[in-house]
Design brief:
The complex is a heterodimer of chains A (about 475) and B (about 450).
Chain A: H1 9-43, H2 50-54, E1 58-59, E2 63-64, E3 70-76, E4 82-85, H3 93-96, H4 105-109, H5 111-114, H6 121-129, E5 134-135, E6 138-141, H7 145-155, E7 160-165, E8 172-178, H8 186-194, H9 206-209, H10 219-229, E9 238-241, E10 244-247, E11 250-253, E12 261-264, H11 265-270, H12 274-282, H13 286-295, H14 321-328, H15 338-349, E13 353-355, E14 360-364, E15 370-373, E16 378-381, H16 385-401, E17 415-421, E18 430-437, E19 444-450, H17 456-473
Parallel strand pairs in A: 1-5, 2-6
Antiparallel strand pairs in A: 2-3, 3-4, 6-14, 7-8, 7-19, 9-12, 10-11, 13-16, 14-15, 17-18, 18-19
Helix pairs in contact in A: 7-17, 10-13, 10-16, 12-14
Chain B: H1 2-26, H2 33-62, H3 65-88, H4 94-114, H5 116-132, H6 136-142, H7 150-167, E1 169-171, E2 174-180, E3 183-185, H8 187-205, H9 209-228, H10 232-250, H11 253-273, H12 275-285, H13 296-308, H14 331-339, H15 341-364, H16 368-392, H17 410-440
Antiparallel strand pairs in B: 1-2, 2-3
The chains are: A alpha+beta (about 475), B mainly alpha (about 450).
Chain lengths: ~475, ~450
């Protein structure tokens, strides 16, 4: 046979061989990375039926509060029958969730950990020998039983939601949603809960899924945008309020048509003067306002370890005057979840940096050894420290001289914003309060909504007050 | 108790295949024939141990006597194949035969676990293919006339692919196979070989520009028919192989770069022209947005791999059957899920080892015809392994190709036997030449 026409063939084969080897190494490295790092978040998915089969070999672990109380445990009787028990009945219904007929809340989020056992290897071998199940890992949450109880009782029989967070870490200390259900009797109650004629939505976690008009709590965003557009002069703004602001055929009323009189910027914010803020809407760059709401995470899926609805802000530049007036005071088509409102509040309290909200503090094995620790993570910096300081000043005035009088006390310096969101002409408004304390070094932030509760200052702020009182009395 | 045995055996299997893989690469560092032989002997022991442990677990889990018979049949087959190959072909590459047997054994283990009937069917085809292809090294060693009939290969390939394109049965949106006497036959698996032979034989004659044009035309025809059959995985393999072979035949970088540019252009075109390409790319970019629909297969595969972790769930402890077409394109995920990530990684490395051997053979051949054949077949093999494993792990979009020797599928197994047989033949040819040379000098 004749010789090779290409004298460099072997050299070139070598080069291509190296190329292929490199590709394979890349593939192997990616594969290792997936197994080591990514797989945990991938497989803890409700579509992954494999996790259920873990239950054949592992007794589901406990869910524990930050102060060591058991929120969910699995009892095994003499014949090996397992029952999931929730010692606090409905107190943690939505936060902890349930694990029959699907999984929700922490039962869903922590499913993988609860069904993975890290008991020591000797014990595992003995368990295998006797065909016994191993005890699954326990999940220790950030939830605080006292705060949860306080929020639960303060909300009482009214519908709504309360979220309590630590602004500097993102820890969720309490999360209440009403109406609720009792996870211990869920199977018996199931048919009633999901019946067509049942419109109260007990299974819905309003804290993360409920979408409400933000009402006057949106004035925080409007104020922020106005500050951004007029950083030097925003305090010079004045407005004379006679209870009804008229613009052509349109009229915007202040709450109960209260005439606030001559208002500067801080007073207008503190008294939640609708006329003043509706007017601000008309002098704003709607494009920039929209960008600011995007930065405040409206219209984006929050990337959180648990499901939450997406808040919406849909006003485009060129909107008509009525829409602008409405949107500037938090009415119109804007919608927000209580959790999202808590997040914005936390960012203001934390110098503009939003910490990622989280519910699981750490995972430990049945013997109490820590298996995995979750640390606070920055979500995003959504405003400058200067802007957060300006907003804090405004929110402090709400408490000291405005609608947040219910929370006025010498014990601590609270800051916040009330809201009374109209959603149906014939019904009472939804009552909002978002706020934090102490204003100088915030340690706790809350977001409260009471459905059809009336005014935010009267219905929602007292709930925040009772939570702050408890927190600072400890 | 069973649990404990299963767990311990699983760890042993991982240890055994890790040592096997280590030996596979250690082999290359030895010049001494005795040491090489001793490595191959140890590899055989490890392979049979892995096989034994796996069927031990299968027996414990299933308590089905047919499994024992099937196991015995496989052991007989492997012993017979290893023995006869060495008997007839004294200067064979033992490493390559070992790797063939190991990959086949892993395939049998997984298929038995997934579907006993299919495993038996696969075994039957493998045994038949092993017998028929036994003669290939002998033919390659002697019949240098194979280089004289390029157009036979070219026409055969185009006609076979054309028949499938027109009359093939549709599976998962692609025309892949034709039904014959109850068997479904996938010609593209065999055309891969004739295609490489065609290109090698043509370039062996001449690398003049007119020849290059002619070869490019026929190659493009192959690729085009595959695209029309919507078998885009194969089309990709054929295309890359041609560009690489052209580069090696001519030594000109501009062909490689031009081919790469053409490939990128064609991919962009395919993305815009074919909805199922868009679907696959979308499922690759974000399978989680549509887990129940388009992202179902890849997300199930990732669930399987992720849940299995480094050490695996153990045979029968996972849910590989949740993955659609797990026996074929997604067999790697099933291996990873139940036998473990380390085990699966070893499989990847063993495939890479096979490829390296192919390239060594290509490097050692004097005649361009043989060099190109070894190179082309090696590239086909490597690209196929890369596409299937990269696809199921979401490294690249899934293209729907099988893992040679491991996946279920008669055509795939038979064509891989032919490919390995040809390489074995070239290896033997080279060794015989060297020995003759030694006698002469």
């Amino acid at each position: 046979m004749k010789a090779n026409a290409n004298p460099k063939a072997n050299h070139q084969i070598l080069i291509l061989t190296y190329g292929v080897v490199l590709l394979f190494i890349g593939l192997a490295a990616y594969y290792g990375y997936f197994l080591q790092v990514k797989s945990e978040s991938v497989i803890n998915n409700s579509y992954n039926a494999r996790l259920d089969s873990f239950a054949d070999r592992v007794v589901r672990g406990e869910i524990i509060s930050s102060d060591g109380q058991i929120l969910a445990r699995t009892d095994v009787d003499g014949e090996g029958h397992e029952t999931r028990v929730y010692p606090y009945d409905s107190l943690f219904a939505h936060a902890v969730g349930y694990s029959v007929n699907g999984k929700t809340g922490l039962e869903a989020q922590a499913n993988f950990y609860l069904l993975t056992s890290h008991v020591n290897i000797l014990e595992q071998i003995i368990n295998e020998l006797y065909a016994r199940k191993s005890q699954g890992d326990n999940v220790v949450t950030t939830l605080d039983v006292e705060l949860q109880k306080k929020a639960y009782e303060a909300l009482g029989k009214r519908n709504g939601a309360v979220v309590v967070m630590e602004p500097d870490t993102g820890k969720i200390l309490a999360m209440v949603s009403k109406p609720d259900y009792n996870p211990n009797t869920l199977l018996n109650d199931w048919n009633n809960l999901v019946a067509d004629e049942n419109t109260s939505g007990q299974l819905l976690n309003r804290a993360t899924q409920g979408l409400y008009p933000p009402g006057s709590t949106f004035k925080i965003i409007t104020a922020l945008e106005y500050i951004r557009e007029n950083p030097e002069t925003y305090k010079d703004y004045t407005f004379d309020c006679d209870g009804i602001y008229e613009n052509g055929d349109y009229a915007i009323k202040c709450y109960h048509e209260t005439a606030h009189g001559h208002q500067n910027f801080t007073q207008a914010f503190a008294n939640s003067c609708n006329g003043a803020f509706a007017g601000l809407g008309l002098v704003m760059d709607l494009n920039r306002l929209k960008n600011t709401t995007r930065q405040m995470l409206f219209g984006t899926d929050l990337s959180l370890p648990f499901p939450a609805n997406r808040s919406s802000y849909i006003m485009e530049p060129g909107a008509d005057i009525w829409q602008i007036l409405q949107t500037a005071i938090g009415q119109g088509q804007t919608q927000i979840t209580p959790l999202h409102n808590a997040m914005i509040t936390c960012a203001i309290a934390n110098g503009g940096t939003l910490m990622k909200p989280y519910l699981i503090d750490h995972v430990e094995n049945a013997g109490g050894d820590v298996i995995k620790k979750f640390v606070p993570q920055t979500y995003e910096t959504i405003m400058t420290a200067q802007e957060s300081a300006s907003l804090t000043e405004l929110m402090r005035a709400v408490v000291t001289e405005g609608t947040g009088s219910a929370i006025r006390t010498d014990a601590y310096t609270a800051a916040g914003k009330t809201g009374s969101a109209e959603f149906d002409k014939n019904k009472e408004t939804h009552a909002w309060f978002v706020g934090f304390a102490p204003a100088e070094h915030p340690k706790i932030a809350v977001s409260v909504i009471v459905e059809e509760g009336g005014s935010g200052g009267k219905a929602a702020a007292p709930i925040a007050r009772s939570l702050f009182d408890l927190y600072f009395s400890r | 108790m069973i649990n404990l045995i299963v767990d311990v055996s699983r760890y042993f299997m991982i240890l055994l295949i890790a040592i096997y893989t280590y030996l596979n690469f250690r082999y290359f560092s030895f010049q001494d024939e005795k040491k090489k032989n001793s490595i191959c002997r140890r590899q055989n022991i490890f392979m049979f141990l892995i096989h034994l442990l796996a069927y031990g677990i299968i027996w414990l889990e299933m308590k089905d006597e047919r499994m024992l018979v099937f196991y015995a049949a496989q052991v007989l087959f492997f012993l017979g194949y290893l023995f006869l190959y060495r008997l007839f072909y004294r200067s064979l590459s033992k490493l390559l035969v070992n790797n063939m047997c190991l990959l086949l054994a892993i395939g049998f283990i997984m298929l038995t676990r997934l579907s006993f009937d299919r495993a038996v069917k696969q075994f039957t085809i493998v045994a038949a293919a092993a017998a028929v292809t036994f003669i290939i090294p002998f033919v390659i060693d002697r019949a240098w006339q194979l280089s004289r009939i390029p157009w036979v290969y070219g026409f055969a390939g185009v006609i076979l692919l054309g028949i499938v394109c027109v009359a093939g049965t549709n599976s998962y949106g692609a025309q892949l196979s034709i039904g014959m006497a109850g068997f479904s036959f996938q010609p593209s698996e065999f055309v891969k070989i004739s295609y490489v032979f065609f290109i090698a034989a043509m370039f062996y004659r001449s690398v003049s520009f007119p020849t290059i044009l002619a070869v490019s035309g026929v190659s493009a025809l192959h690729v085009l028919i595959l695209v029309l059959s919507r078998d885009l995985g194969s089309a990709l393999i054929f295309f890359i192989t041609y560009v690489f072979m052209l580069f090696i035949a001519t030594g000109k970088w501009r062909y490689l770069l031009g081919g790469a540019a053409g490939g990128v252009l064609a991919s962009v075109l395919a993305f815009h022209l074919f909805d199922h390409v868009k679907t696959r790319v979308a499922a690759w970019l974000n399978p989680w947005s549509d887990i129940a629909g388009k992202g179902y297969q890849i997300s199930q595969s990732l669930f399987a791999i992720g849940t299995g972790g480094w050490l695996g769930m153990g045979l029968y402890r996972g849910m590989p059957r949740k993955i659609p077409v797990v026996e074929k394109d997604f067999i790697f995920s099933a291996i990873s899920e139940e036998l473990g990530g380390i085990f699966a990684l070893c499989v990847l490395l063993i495939c890479l080892g096979c490829f390296l051997q192919f390239m060594m053979v290509a490097g050692s051949m004097q005649a361009l015809f043989y060099k190109l054949i070894a190179f082309g077949l090696g590239m086909i093999y490597a690209i196929q392994v890369f596409l299937t494993i990269g696809g199921v792990t979401k490294f690249i979009p899934s293209t729907g190709v099988t893992l040679p020797f491991v996946s279920y599928g008669g055509s795939s197994a038979a064509s891989t036997f032919i490919i390995f047989g040809i390489i074995q033949g070239l290896y033997i040819l080279k060794r015989n030449e060297e020995e003759e040379g030694r006698y002469e000098s």
